[in-house]
Amino acid sequence: MAEILKAIKGMNDILPPESARWEWLEDIVRQLMRRYGFQNMRTPIVEPTALFVRGLGEVTDIVEKEMYSFEDSLNGDRLTLRPEGTAGAVRAINEHSFLYEGGKRLYYIGPMFRHERPQKGRYRQFHQVGAEVLGFAGPDVDAELILMTAALWRDLGLVVGRDVKLQLNSLGQPEERKAHREALIRHLEAHAELLDEDGKRRLHSNPLRILDTKNPVMQPVVEAAPRLLDFLGEASLAHFNAVKAVLDAAGVPYEVNTRLVRGMDYYNLTVFEWVTDRLGAQGTVCGGGRYDGLIEQLGGKPAPAVGWGLGMERLLLLLEEVGVPAPETAPDAFAVVFAGTPLPTVLATLEALRAEGIAVVLNPAGKEGPASPKSQFKKADASGARFALVFGPDEVAQGTVSVKPLRDGGEQLRQPLNDVSAWAPSLRVGRPS
């Protein structure tokens, strides 16, 4: 017997009934995106490695440590499995001159890949929902994107301020970050003996990322570091204050976290994260911000942009932790077919019901014909179906089917086979049509 092959560590199969929760979440996301005027986009899983080196920054953790990169054996091109979605979205926008007719609201859902140590809520293949607004520079768009995430939490049954909390910051503009960077380097150099190896390596290449360290030994140094907010000019502060004003008016609570920098180099002005204390170390559920320079950086004409990314695995873990109920997956009805019943009539009736939107399951007959009624009723009960449709030779000969309630009691009724549309709605009892 051949050895059973297994999935790569950190790249997980998603099977029923768990897959139903994924479909449910994706449906809610798509409905949300339609309400806010977003359109779906789909980009390749494999992109040129240079896209992420140039877009995310050479000294980010993603580029330095986490990318799955390889050489194309056909032509020698350096390729990478996408570790995030924004760079690929911008590449597609530039390649197809998609902003030629004006700004766009786009979203995507799909797998991303990072070579990390797998742990709960952090996998090597993970899935993201991403929302990108391109071509609009105002703080109203930043605020609306944050409000959209707050609406998503409500749609999912999460409580803002309890289950998820919003952290907000501004990274200003490049010249403001440059002045802050110089002051930050001076501060960190004065305490170089307290920096870990990662901090020392980044001291002159990317000191802002040191502020995001989780090393407890470095926390006093980080807490005393110069704040980027104190280096912001009038325009950057006005942008940040306008975002906060919208959130205040909408009643969305937030905390200004001056150490929030995000993990990619392309951000400017507004950055934000939605965090939870219910998932331990994997507390960031959604994050994003403005990236006005990235479109030009990747070869396009200068244009502003802002967006966010949401980890689906982590969000599903949070929903489970909070106790949001799993979606209903049971069929409406289960067909119990007695021996001797004409199968063409049975299948024609089931197709008519499905055309009316009824979810109905047939237990396929084996080589010897249908299983015993007792066995079929047992499977009908195990399926979670609300009704059994009993197709016996006598019923079918009289042009009827018996509808037997399986969950809430009630009377077993005979219904006409030639007028399925008249009684099909009664099978939707207990669920929305």
TrEMBL record:
It comes from Aquabacterium olei. It is found in: Cytoplasm. CDD domains: HisRS-like_core. Keywords: Aminoacyl-tRNA synthetase, ATP-binding, Cytoplasm, Ligase, Nucleotide-binding, Protein biosynthesis. L-histidine binds at E84, G85, T86, R114, Q128, E132, R262, Y266, Y267. The lineage of its organism: Bacteria, Pseudomonadati, Pseudomonadota, Betaproteobacteria, Burkholderiales. Gene3D superfamilies: Anticodon-binding domain (3.40.50.800), Bira Bifunctional Protein, Domain 2 (3.30.930.10). Homodimer. It catalyses: tRNA(His) + L-histidine + ATP = L-histidyl-tRNA(His) + AMP + diphosphate + H(+). GO terms for biological process: histidyl-tRNA aminoacylation. Its main location: cytoplasm. It holds the Pfam family HGTP_anticodon. One of its GO terms (cellular component) is cytoplasm. This is Histidine--tRNA ligase.
